[in-house]
Amino acid sequence: MGKLSSEADELREETWSADLERPEYADDRGKVVEDGLDAVRRTAQGYFVNLVTHGNHGHPSDYLHGAVEDEFDGVRVEYVERCGCGGYVTRVHVDE
């Protein structure tokens, strides 16, 4: 499984953002989904993670939202906005 940083195995007890729009994600939608799911796994209950995805893959409701909802119970997925740089922000709330 892909890792987002050297702290990838730590549970984050905070609201945070996962940068999935770096160049290595531009041509690999599978990596976006894999690392997005990993980010949700690393988010403690009661917090949310913003999944910031590369614009090359289009709207995240077409490929990411369903993957998150299929993988996890007790999460809420919401589209937030399109970034000025062309990417998209999806917020995943890990409910208590």
TrEMBL record:
Record InterPro entries: rSAM_target_put
Domain of life of the organism encoding this protein: Archaea
Biased composition (Basic and acidic residues): 13-24
Ranges for region Disordered: 1-24
Protein name (record): CGCGG family rSAM-modified RiPP protein
